[in-house]
């Protein structure tokens, strides 16, 4: 916005008749009018001015008597800017082309001769619809912020993780993801891959804890024909499959000792040997490892090699448990509810108040995976349009931990309410104070007491 002046919305008029064009130019006072007399100019204006609404004469040169050029212009415009509202203007008695244009995605049609008032009305209505749709898109984005592809998060704790991922992704650094089970380590690993120059290459994941020790080596490194009984053809391992892309080693803390040595050698030399093979095969992979285990404790116990630990942790990213992400449980629950309701064709719309409270209170030992499972089940079980705490199999009271005293209970509830209010209004102090029914100075005092800053109720510590 420049200097606080309200910018007028842009309207593009595409018309090859110069007389009609100059007449129309003055009919739309509420709009910044752009004009074009053929398809090429229209596309250039669309790119430059991003008009919300377009009136498009279907009879454009080189086919002024027909509609082929106009329809082609329509298709090109909608491919470039699908949200644009295009009103096609046709000759008298040209219903067929008008109908075809609407089928192609035009917002409406209008038949010549032009009545400026009527056309103005249609343009205004199209503009209102554009605004509404834009607002909906904005709200939908705000409702489920996805700071990384496939990752829903709004909490400062997770946004910090996402910023690290964005910085680390373009590098080749071997990255270690530490976080409890179900916190989204694989989601982050995929984001590291997706945002890297290797994105077009393969992403190969292997869970070191899920594969029996005697099979894991051949899974990772592959084998030659005859390497062992039953090896009746040459088989590539996961590392080789990941060539040119990213290898994700989940639960790397469970890697048996012998394989730790072999993995270390691979990370140093970037060459593998298949089981029973003699030749070294160079492989170009970026390695991302993850574990929920405490690797330092494993090292102290002699169960994990320290030299391997240093190799795999060129960069370490700590993923916080769900209960430590302010407001994310609720955000994720809403996003997941929308997704599952759509997938299952159920008209469940939201959560009841007791469900929201239960979600905020629960400790989420199983993290996002637990939340996913509970919401998925609740969408199926819900009798009404709202999911209740019971549908989530969460009891609003049962999860309440034992409290030290009443003052502590009040304090905690107060802190939660202030954080929640700030998040609901994006840190707007006046509105948060209004929501809480307190004055602004009181709210400032409360924020200080609970160590919160205005950026969405983040803890300022
Ligand atoms: N922030 C998030 N937004 C949306 N979905 C998420 C998010 N975090 C995790 N998920 C989903 O939760 C489930 C568990 O995530 P994921 O498998 O990445 O966790 P993990 O930490 O690798 O778990 P484990 O240690 O058990 O392998 C997946 O279905 C994933 O899509």
From TrEMBL:
Q: Which GO terms describe its molecular function?
A: ATP binding; sequence-specific DNA binding
Does Repeat count among this protein's keywords?
no
Record-annotated Response regulatory domain positions? 10-127
Biological process (GO) annotations held by this record are: phosphorelay signal transduction system; regulation of DNA-templated transcription
Positions carrying 4-aspartylphosphate are 57
Going by the entry's taxonomy, the superkingdom of the source organism is recorded as Bacteria
Keywords, in A-Z order: ATP-binding, DNA-binding, Nucleotide-binding, Phosphoprotein, Transcription, Transcription regulation
Alphabetical list of InterPro entries matching this protein: AAA+_ATPase, AAA_lid_NorR, CheY-like_superfamily, Homeodomain-like_sf, HTH_Fis, P-loop_NTPase, PEP-CTERM_resp_reg, Sig_transdc_resp-reg_receiver
- Keyword set includes DNA-binding: yes
What sequence ranges are listed for the domain Sigma-54 factor interaction? 151-380
Entry-linked Pfam families = AAA_lid_14, HTH_8, Response_reg, Sigma54_activat
Which PANTHER family does the record cross-reference, listed alphabetically?
Answer: ALGINATE BIOSYNTHESIS TRANSCRIPTIONAL REGULATORY PROTEIN ALGB, TRANSCRIPTIONAL REGULATORY PROTEIN
Q: What is this protein called?
A: Two-component system, NtrC family, response regulator
Q: Which organism is it from?
A: Ectothiorhodospira mobilis
Taxonomic lineage is:
Bacteria, Pseudomonadati, Pseudomonadota, Gammaproteobacteria, Chromatiales
């Amino acid at each position: 916005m420049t200097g606080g002046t309200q910018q007028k919305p842009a309207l593009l008029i595409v018309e090859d008749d110069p007389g009609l064009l100059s007449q129309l130019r003055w009919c739309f006072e509420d709009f910044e009018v752009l004009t074009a007399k053929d398809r090429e100019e229209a596309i250039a204006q669309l790119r430059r001015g991003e008009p919300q609404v377009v009136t498009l004469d279907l009879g454009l040169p080189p086919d002024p008597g027909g509609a082929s050029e106009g329809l082609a212009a329509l298709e090109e415009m909608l491919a470039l800017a699908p949200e644009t509202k295009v009103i096609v203007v046709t000759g008298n008695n040209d219903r067929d082309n008008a109908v075809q244009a609407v089928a192609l995605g035009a917002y409406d049609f209008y038949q010549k001769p032009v009545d400026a008032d009527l056309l103005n009305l249609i343009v205004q209505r199209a503009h209102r619809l554009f605004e509404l749709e834009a607002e909906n898109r904005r709200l939908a984005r705000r409702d489920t912020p996805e700071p990384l592809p496939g990752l829903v998060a709004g909490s400062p704790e997770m946004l910090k993780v996402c910023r690290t991922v964005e910085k680390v992704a373009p590098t080749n650094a071997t990255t270690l993801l530490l976080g409890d089970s179900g916190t989204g380590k694989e989601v982050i690993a995929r984001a590291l891959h997706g945002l890297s120059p290797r994105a077009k290459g393969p992403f190969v994941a292997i869970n070191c804890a899920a594969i029996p020790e005697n099979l894991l080596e051949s899974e990772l490194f592959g084998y030659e024909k005859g390497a062992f009984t039953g090896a009746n053809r040459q088989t590539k391992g996961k590392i080789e499959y990941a060539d040119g892309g990213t290898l994700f080693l989940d639960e790397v803390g469970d890697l048996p000792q012998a394989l730790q040595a072999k993995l270390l050698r691979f990370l140093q030399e970037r060459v593998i040997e298949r089981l029973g093979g003699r030749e070294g095969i160079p492989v170009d992979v970026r390695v991302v490892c993850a574990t929920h285990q405490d690797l330092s404790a494993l090292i102290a116990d002699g169960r994990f090699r320290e030299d391997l630990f240093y190799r795999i942790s060129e960069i370490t990213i700590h993923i916080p448990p769900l209960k430590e992400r302010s407001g994310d449980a609720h955000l994720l629950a809403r996003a997941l509810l929308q997704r599952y309701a759509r997938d299952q064709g159920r008209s469940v719309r939201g959560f009841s108040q007791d469900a929201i409270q239960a979600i905020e209170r629960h400790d989420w030992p199983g993290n996002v995976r637990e939340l996913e499972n509970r919401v998925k089940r609740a969408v199926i079980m819900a009798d009404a349009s709202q999911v209740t705490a019971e549908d989530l199999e969460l009891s609003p009271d049962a999860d309440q931990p034992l409290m030290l005293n009443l003052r502590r209970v009040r304090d905690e509830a107060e802190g939660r309410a202030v954080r929640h209010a700030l998040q609901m209004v994006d840190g707007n102090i006046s509105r948060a104070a209004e929501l809480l029914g307190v004055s602004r100075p009181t709210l400032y005092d409360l924020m200080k007491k609970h160590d919160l800053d205005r950026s969405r109720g983040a803890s300022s510590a």
